[in-house]
Design goal:
898 residues; 26 strands; Rossmann fold
C-alpha cells in the first residue's frame, strides 16, 4: 500500500485499521505524521489510530484474552526484570562454572529468544553436538521448568501462545492490519501474521515512498572528520529549510554516540556550552542507560552511600547534587563544605564517616548547611530502621521510594523538574515497580543485594526522553527502516564494517542458524542483508550521501565494495563554529597588572604572602586576595603535609613538656624518659589531627606514633652531637608581625638562645631540599629573614632544621662561625657585617610587603619554568597563552612577550 493511500485509509477508518510496525520509532513516526495531517485538515480533535510495534500488538491481543471471562488459565507474562532474574538464578544454580553469571545469563536469554523467533527451539533441544549447545539446552530446560512452576508465561513464547489462541478462535482479531517495516520478518512474526490472515484479517503492507536520485560517496580522512563533515552538511540543509526531515544512519551508533553528539552540538548548538540544558535540533536513537540519567544516578547514589562504603567522588556528587533538598538555598555552603570534606575524608568513605565529617565542618569551620544535615539525618534514620534485615523486593521498593521523597528537592517542592527530568522520574518510578515485581522470582534480599539488583536493572534499562520530533534524526541501521526523509546521510560504511562480519550465536548450532537464515549466521546472509538495507536507504530520500573514513590511526581504510562505484560527493563549506571564531578573532591586549590597594587590617597567610609575592606577584594576588586556591583531593592515610605537621607538633609538645628546655637537660634525660615524652606528644598530635579530619585507624596510628618517635629521637640525638649549649626560649609562640604596611600573626617554630645570649631563629623542614636563596631581591624562603627582622632583630642566626628520616642537619646563616653547624658564610661577600645583612632583609621584605599592599599583581615568575612547575594558576594568569620567556639577571626574573 502506497504512502498516500495508507494515510487516506487510516483517516477514514482509524478504529478498524491496526498498524503494526517493526519498531517503536516507526510507530511514533507514523502516529506523528497522522497527527500533522489532521492539524493541516484544521481538525480540533480526532480519533487516535492503533499504531503499535509488534511486541505491543502481541501483548494487546494477549491482554484482551486474559480479560475474556470465557478464557481461564492464562498466566501473566514475565516482565523483563523477572525474566532476567530467573535466567541468572538458573545459570548460578547450574553445574557449569562460568566467569560471569550475569553475562552468561544474558547470552542464554538471547539465545532462547532467537531460537523462538526463528522457530528452531524444538530442534535445538534435540541437538547433542557441542558442549556450549548442551549447556544451553540444560539451562533452557531448567528455565522452562521454573517458569511453569511459578505459573508464568515466557515473553519469547508469547507470540506462539497468541497464535494458538488465534487459530483456536479463542481471541478476536482486528478486521484489517497494515504491516510497516517488516522487510526482515522473523519466522515467529510471519507465523502469527499467517494465523491472522487465516482467521480473516485483511493484511496489507506499507510501502514507503521511493526516490530515484543517485547516492553520492564521501571519503573522509578519519572518523572525526566524518563526524564534522556530516554536521556541516546537516547545518547546510537546515539553513536551506529548517523544516526539512534529515536522517543520519550509523551502523555502530552505540560506539559513536558521544562523538556524534559532540560534533552536532559544536556545529548546530554552540550555545550549549553556556546553556547545556537547551533544546537540541536533533535526536539520537537508542538512548542511554537509565542509571546514567542525572536524576536516577542521584537516587542510586543516595542509597549506595547509605548501604556501604563509597568513593569520595560519590560523596562529593551527592553533597553538590541539585536534586538533594535545599540545594539552591545552600549552594554556596555546600560548595564550601565539599572543599572542606576533601581535607577531612579519605578516598573511601563510610556513611558514619561522612556524617561525622559534615558535623565537624559545621562545628569547626562554621559551614552550617542545616537542610543538608537534615537529609543526612533522614538517611541515617532510614539506615537504622530499614536496612538491618532482609526484605522482599517490593518492601525494598517502597522503602527506597519513601526515603527519596524525604530528601529530594523535587519531593520537598524546592525544584520544578523540566520535561526530561519529569520523564526520567516517571521511568525511575516504573523501574521501582518492576523491581517490586521481582517478588515473583526472587526471595528476601539484604540491603546490598537489593541495591545490586536495582542498579543492574537501571544499567540495563535504555532510556531516552521524548522531546517532540526534531528535524534531524540520528538512527541505527534497523530504526531507519521504512522512514522517509528529505535528506539522508549514511555513515561508517568502510570495507571492514559493511557488510558486517558474520557473528553466529555461540550457544546455538550454526547449522540451524544458517538454515533459518538468521542475521549474522554467515557471511553470505550478511552480504545479502547489507545489499537489501543499502538499497532501501538509497531510495529513502531525494538526496543520499554515504560516507566512510579513510584512516583509523595509522591504518588505511577502504570504502565498502557496495558503495565503491558511487560518484564522489562535493563537501559543503564548513559551518561556522564557536571554537573557530575564537581562534580567528583579533585579541585586544590590555594588561593591567595593578590591583586595588590592600586596605584591610587583617591578613591571613603570614610569611607565605611574602614568599608568593617574591615568587610571582600575580600568585600572591590570586591566592591571598582572590582566594584562588586549588581544591584538595581526598586521600588515604596521611599526606606529606600532614606528616610534616605531626613532626612539628611532636617537637613543640616535647620541648613544652621538658622541665627545663635546655641542651643540658636534654642530655640528662634517659632514652626511656625521652621515649615516654615523645610517645605522649605523638599520641596528642594524632588526636588533634583526628579532630580536623578522619581519625587514623588504630593500626595506622600505632605505625605513625612509632615513626614520629623514631624520627624525633634521631633529631634530638643530632642536636646533642652537633650543637653546643642552648636554651629553647619560644616554641610556636603566636606574635604580631609588622612589616611595611602589612600586619599578621607569625609563629616561629622555635627560638633558641645560646650560652652567650645570642638568639637563633629555627624553622623545621620535613620535605625535600629547600632553596637557600636569602640574599637576593626576591628571596625564595623569606620566613626566617622576616621573623628575624620583624620579631628578633638582635638574633644572630637563622637556620632550617631538616628533620627527615635519614636526613638530619642544620643549615643557615649566622653572625659568627661557632654559632651554627653547617652554616653558609657566603653572605660575607656581599655585606660588611651581620647588621648590614639584617638591614638588607628589612628593606627587601618591606619592599615586597609594600608591593603587595599597593596591588602589584604582575605575571612575573622569578624563574620559569621552575616557579610555574607546581603552580595551580596557569589558567588564571594565562602565562602559557602569552608565550612569555624569562630572562634571569641576578636572581630577578623578567617576563617578556616575544
Amino acid at each position: 500500500m502506497q504512502r498516500e493511500a495508507f494515510f487516506d485509509l487510516l483517516e477514514r477508518t482509524p478504529s478498524a485499521l491496526w498498524v503494526v510496525t517493526s519498531n517503536q520509532r516507526l510507530a511514533r513516526s507514523i502516529a506523528h505524521e497522522f497527527d500533522i495531517r489532521q492539524v493541516k485538515r484544521s481538525l480540533g480533535v480526532w480519533e487516535t489510530p492503533q499504531v503499535l510495534p509488534f511486541g505491543a500488538f502481541v501483548a494487546k491481543l494477549y491482554d484482551a484474552a486474559q480479560h475474556d471471562p470465557d478464557l481461564t488459565g492464562l498466566c501473566a507474562p514475565l516482565t523483563p526484570a523477572q525474566e532476567r532474574a530467573l535466567w541468572e538464578s538458573v545459570v548460578a544454580d547450574g553445574e557449569l562454572a562460568v566467569l560471569s553469571f550475569t553475562a552468561t545469563a544474558n547470552l542464554a536469554s538471547n539465545a532462547w529468544r532467537l531460537a523462538h523467533q526463528w522457530d528452531i527451539a524444538s530442534r535445538v533441544r534435540r541437538y547433542t553436538a557441542g558442549a556450549d549447545t548442551r549447556a544451553f539446552v540444560a539451562w533452557a530446560t531448567e528455565y522452562q521448568r521454573r517458569v511453569d512452576a511459578i505459573g508464568a508465561v515466557d515473553p519469547a513464547q508469547l507470540p506462539d501462545i497468541v497464535r494458538g489462541l488465534i487459530c483456536s478462535g479463542a481471541v478476536s482479531v482486528p478486521p484489517m492490519i497494515v504491516l510497516a517495516g517488516f522487510d526482515e520478518a522473523t519466522a515467529q512474526q510471519q507465523q502469527l501474521i499467517d494465523a491472522l490472515i487465516a482467521r480473516g484479517t485483511s493484511c496489507e503492507r506499507f510501502e514507503p515512498k521511493q526516490h530515484a536520485a543517485p547516492a553520492l560517496r564521501a571519503q573522509c580522512h578519519d572518523e572525526h572528520d566524518e563526524n564534522f563533515r556530516m554536521a556541516d552538511w546537516v547545518a547546510a540543509r537546515l539553513g536551506e529549510n529548517s523544516n526539512a526531515r534529515i536522517g543520519v544512519v550509523v551502523p555502530d551508533l552505540q560506539m559513536r554516540r558521544r562523538s556524534l553528539a559532540s560534533a552536532l552540538d559544536a556545529t548546530l548548538t554552540p550555545d550549549r556550552l553556556l546553556a547545556p540544558s537547551g533544546v537540541r535540533p536533533y535526536t539520537i536513537s537508542l538512548g542511554g542507560s537509565l542509571a546514567e540519567i542525572p536524576l536516577v544516578a542521584f537516587s542510586l547514589r543516595a542509597v549506595r552511600v547509605v548501604v556501604g562504603d563509597v568513593s569520595f567522588d560519590e560523596v562529593s556528587a551527592l553533597v553538590r547534587s541539585p536534586y538533594l533538598a535545599g540545594a539552591d538555598a545552600e549552594r554556596d555552603l555546600r560548595d564550601r563544605l565539599d572543599a572542606d570534606l576533601r581535607r577531612r575524608c579519605e578516598r573511601v568513605v563510610s556513611f558514619d564517616g561522612l556524617l561525622d565529617a559534615v558535623e565537624r565542618s559545621a562545628r569547626d569551620c562554621r559551614i552550617d548547611a542545616p537542610r543538608l544535615l537534615h537529609c543526612l539525618h533522614s538517611l541515617r534514620d532510614w539506615r537504622r530502621t530499614e536496612t538491618a534485615v532482609s526484605r522482599r523486593p517490593s518492601e525494598w521498593s517502597g522503602a527506597i521510594a519513601r526515603v527519596l521523597r524525604s530528601i529530594t528537592s523535587y519531593g520537598a517542592g524546592d525544584r520544578a523538574l523540566d520535561s526530561a527530568e519529569f520523564q526520567s522520574l516517571a521511568r525511575w518510578q516504573e523501574l521501582l515497580a518492576e523491581f517490586a515485581g521481582l517478588d515473583r522470582v526472587v526471595g528476601r534480599l539484604a540491603a546490598a543485594g537489593a541495591l545490586a539488583q536495582l542498579e543492574r536493572l537501571a544499567r540495563e534499562t535504555i532510556f531516552q526522553p521524548e522531546g517532540g520530533t526534531p528535524a534531524v534524526q540520528v538512527l541505527g541501521i534497523l530504526e531507519a527502516n521504512s522512514l522517509d526523509f528529505d535528506h539522508l546521510w549514511i555513515m561508517g560504511l568502510t570495507a571492514d564494517a559493511w557488510p558486517p562480519p558474520a557473528r553466529p550465536h555461540a550457544l546455538l548450532p550454526i547449522e540451524l542458524q544458517r538454515a533459518a537464515e538468521m542475521p549474522g549466521a554467515s557471511a553470505a546472509i550478511e552480504l545479502k542483508r547489507a545489499r537489501q538495507l543499502l538499497q532501501r536507504w538509497m531510495a529513502a530520500a531525494p538526496e543520499v550521501v554515504i560516507s566512510h573514513a579513510g584512516h583509523e590511526g595509522d591504518r588505511a581504510l577502504a570504502s565498502s565494495p557496495l558503495i565503491a562505484a558511487l560518484d564522489i560527493y562535493s563537501p559543503v563549506p564548513h559551518a561556522p563554529r564557536l571554537i573557530d571564531a575564537l581562534g580567528a578573532s583579533t585579541l585586544t591586549s590590555d594588561l593591567d597588572s595593578v590591583a586595588p590597594q590592600w586596605i584591610s587590617s587583617a591578613l591571613r597567610g603570614g610569611a607565605t604572602v611574602l614568599k608568593d609575592q617574591a615568587a610571582c606577584p600575580f600568585r600572591a594576588f590570586a591566592i591571598h586576595r582572590l582566594n584562588a586556591r586549588a581544591i584538595d583531593a581526598a586521600h588515604d592515610g596521611l599526606d606529606h603535609s600532614e606528616r610534616g605537621q605531626l613532626v612539628h607538633d611532636v617537637l613543640a609538645q616535647f620541648w613544652r613538656a621538658m622541665p627545663a628546655p635546655t641542651r643540658d637537660a636534654l642530655a640528662a634525660t634517659s632514652f626511656e624518659q625521652r621515649r615516654e615524652l615523645l610517645n605522649a606528644a605523638a599520641r596528642g598530635a594524632l588526636a588533634r589531627l583526628g579532630r580536623r579530619r578522619s581519625a587514623p585507624t588504630a593500626a595506622l596510628a600505632a605505625l605513625e606514633t612509632a615513626r614520629l618517635v623514631r624520627i624525633v629521637e634521631h633529631w634530638l640525638q643530632y642536636e646533642l652531637k652537633h650543637r653546643s649549649d642552648f636554651r629553647v626560649v619560644a616554641v610556636e609562640e603566636a606574635r604580631t608581625v609588622q612589616i611595611g604596611p602589612l600586619a599578621f600573626t607569625g609563629r616561629p617554630d622555635r627560638i633558641d638562645e645560646t650560652s652567650d645570649g645570642a638568639r637563633v631563629v629555627i624553622d623545621y623542614k620535613t620535605g625535600g631540599p629547600v632553596s637557600g636563596a636569602w640574599l637576593d631581591q626576591r628571596p625564595d624562603e623569606p620566613q626566617l629573614p622576616l621573623y628575624l627582622a620583624a620579631l628578633e632583630p638582635d638574633a644572630k642566626a637563622i637556620a632550617f632544621a631538616r628533620v627527615r628520616a635519614g636526613d638530619f642537619c642544620l643549615s643557615g646563616l649566622a653572625a659568627t662561625p661557632e654559632l651554627l653547624p653547617g652554616q653558609n658564610r657566603n653572605w660575607e661577600k656581599s655585606f660588611p657585617d651581620w647588621q648590614a645583612l639584617v638591614d638588607h632583609w628589612s628593606v627587601v621584605l618591606d619592599r615586597l610587603a609594600t608591593a603587595f599592599a599597593d596591588g602589584d599583581a604582575a605575571v612575573n615568575p622569578k624563574r620559569r619554568p621552575q616557579t610555574c612547575r607546581y603552580c595551580n594558576l596557569p589558567t588564571l594568569c594565562r602565562i602559557n597563552e602569552r608565550g612569555a620567556t624569562i630572562d634571569v639577571d641576578d636572581g630577578v626574573a623578567m617576563a617578556r612577550d616575544d
